[in-house]
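Limitations
The structure tokens in this dataset are predictions for the assembled complex, not deposited experimental models. Users should treat interface geometry with appropriate caution, especially where small molecules or nucleic acid strands are included. An illustrative entry is reproduced here so readers can see what is and is not provided.
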Amino acid sequence: MADAIASERGPQRAHAEGHGAAALYTDPGGLWATIRGWITTVDHKRIGIMYASAALFFLLVGGLEALLIRVQLAVPENDFIGAETYNQLFTMHGTTMIFLVAMPLAVAFFNYIVPLQIGARDVAFPRLNALSFWVFLFGGLFLNSSWLFGAAPNTSWVGYANLTSVQYSPGLNVDFWVIGLSIVGISSLIGAINFITTIINLRAPGLTLMRMPLFTWMTFVTSWILATAIPVIAVALIFLAADRFFATNFFVPGAGGDPVLWQHLFWIFGHPEVYILILPSFGIISEVVPTFSRKPLFGYPIVVYAGILIGFIGWGVWSHHMFTTGLGPIADSFFVASTMIIAIPTGVKIFNWLATMWGGALRFTTAMLFAIGLVAIFTIGGLSGIMHASAPVDLQQHDSYFVVAHFHYTIVGGAVTGLFAGFYYWYPKVTGRLMSETLGKWHFWTFIVGFNLTFFPQHFVGLFGMPRRVFTYPAELGLGGWNMASTIGAFIFGVSTLIFVWNLIRSARRGTPAAANPWDAPTLEWSVPSPPPHYNFAEIPEVESRDPLWKGAAAGPDRAVATGGDEPHMPSPSAWPILTALGISLTWILLMARIWWVPLIGLAVTAVCVYSWAFQPAFRAES
Amino acid sequence: MIGAGELAGGRGRRLLNPIYYTIVIVSSALLGCGQDYPQSTIDPASGDFGAAIHSLYQTVFWWTMLILAVVWGVLGWVLFRYRARPGGPEPKRIHGHLGLEIGWTVGAAIIVVLITIPTIHTVFQTQREAGEDALVVEVIGHQWWWEFRYPEQDVVTANELHLPVGRQVDLRLWSADVIHSFWVPRLGGKRDLNPLVRKPDGSLAINRLTFTVDEAGTFMGQCAEFCGPAHSLMGLRVIAAPEPEFEEWVERMKTPVEPDSGSLAARGREVFMGATCVACHAIAGTNARGRLGPDLTRLGARTTIGAGLLENTRENLAAWITAPAEFKPGVKMPGVAEEGGGFPPTGLSSEQVEAVAAYLASLGR
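Predicted assembly:
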């Protein structure tokens, strides 16, 4: 690739700018120059911030959808919103939270942190990185634009065939879903390839694989899962798109197709997806727990191997989502066994975090509280997972609110809690200021109360026989009280999230200024100033151990900043990634015209953009 | 709607169930009331299928509680004992301990094996082939109602599944449109109704569910796989009765009901047979032989209409016939003034609707 970054220094350039947040995140020449700078940026740090901002925006959208769902379910036989709106809301809530919130938030951290952790100046393919972000943003906005047409997707986030066929879903709803997800999937695939390459090729000298920080390790594993799982959902989505737009019959039973095929394809992607969501957070807390225990991670190689093992076994468990499908006792038994096996490395990780804290000197910062919260809450989700890994038990729990409780305990109690820890932990690195600990503690405790009040009762609601994806339930089920508790909890959870967002915004200006290493953490990203200069490291550091800053061997801040006009040369901004992203999105969106040649217009735009991109030099000639 | 108290079954045996106790105590403490849960999966089940699942659930439940206690116990101790103290010593930077790693890996593996063995045993136990003398019922899912066919008895009904107590039943499940899932929690787990697909060997992929109900009563259930706009309103009831009563029900189903001549019901019959109703609905012993909608034979004897949606009264029947979409979004039945499921409005006058309702209600005697 033309734009791969070499780690040598580029030509010298005279400069004398400060390294505060303002200097890193604004461009000389006023507001328009700054906007232009962000749109054309190829800097992994800016792209990381854009990922986080977009994902937080979608978090608020998905959260609002959740609150409307909870209002509708607060009392039995409610008529706050009708069936059709409700079905759109829960479909978009799930789709948004998985694809537009949890995944891109993790990617935001991949972007900002991984190059800093491995002593690199950027990712391997900076312009591809920008393309990945813009494709994600356009896909997410397109998916949500369905609300403007009153045709938001309404067949649930798993979109089981053959309900999604033109016969049973004639509207535009499923079109928005299949196209939006296809676009977003392209983004994930590009990102995964970028991070695999980055982590393999751009590590600083001496940073061997078994010295890599756990977060980088989990990014590496997650990227491999993404690179292999996204093509599976892509196949399923392309089949579905072909069924809908070109009248094929992949999932049409009367014509020789098979709806169960969709379930297999979806879950062969869908279960690895679960680990795509959780492993980054496992990585984050494997950084946070040691830092605030003042002890290295207990059993580092075991935690790494457990992560890799989870990544592999995650491929062999998909049919535990299909115990009610009727695959027969032999298939059921196989997937029971494989699912039980994957519980072992997960449990081992929990014990290693506990052992890391054992004998430490624990500092209860907000980041640490969320990391501890993950250990405590995720365990509940893991254990309810063992319950429905037991296939016959799952025949009762499947598609009931028990499962809703389970996956919120894993995805919110695990993935999102870890991401919150990551925000409090790395915020000073990104902005040069600490997040407010007072607001942080408010956030944490309202989260704990709100989250558990929302989702713990749902275990009972499920065990007492309420299926999921219902817009109403009869009073005679006796579940009004439990549901009301859930709804109250959801609003507390909502307030908690607003406190978090307010803390993010407020601390950017009013937070306590942070030094390069405010937590006395051991990894490389803390060796550079907060925020880092746009080239990250003036001199690429040499690494001699797993916890370089605790051993005092690696580059300190003095060696991280270029002095005397000796600044490394970084790749130039480019408008082609965003334009290419438009072309790719357009190609998919124009499928909705249902005329075979119309999408070719988008393809032509893409081709022109890719061509121009290829001939634009990565490094602008010096003026 | 039917009060929960009328739904029978198993309350006596609850007293022996520790999980039930735990949950009732917790729920009463939280919500200040005792409750009855007609779709509970953790009350003692009223059949062998549910009982097998419940016993397995208890095994798994206590293992997971043990793990939770260990993890939370250690976590609580660590947070209390190892919090940073001013002037405290710098922690020793140990990197791991192989013995401990092997210990908790093996410990986790043993627990997992102890859960897996009874699980696989129950998987095979609950998916056994039905015996020769099992009662065969074909369960066919439709958007958004249930069709039940008894091929040996030559009886068809909808939304209320009548089963004999103590006799094994062999349900054969499939769907006429999209995927549905049959779930009656008090009797056992759910099983999907897939659209018919021919397997490579030429046979049709039909799901089976085999169990024995061991207690008379009415058991609530509903569709458990999202199947479109009215998924939430696709309820069903299993009415289990001793074998002789079940046989009586079969006989009644096969005996046509004639309304008294000159009655409103007789007038309703005339309207029904002359209107588009018969394009979709069947009533045994008459010329109504439509198969797209629920079979209405002996409709008056059912407890609910609209798949568990409304109490079965003449007023509700009339309201339903007038405008079914008001009660069930997306319903594929036309009303008097609005189309439904691709069919034009029926155009019945309110007098005609009243008559049809009277006729259908009379089909229960």
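Some entries come with short summary sentences. For this one: The first strand of chain B starts at residue 135 and ends at 142.
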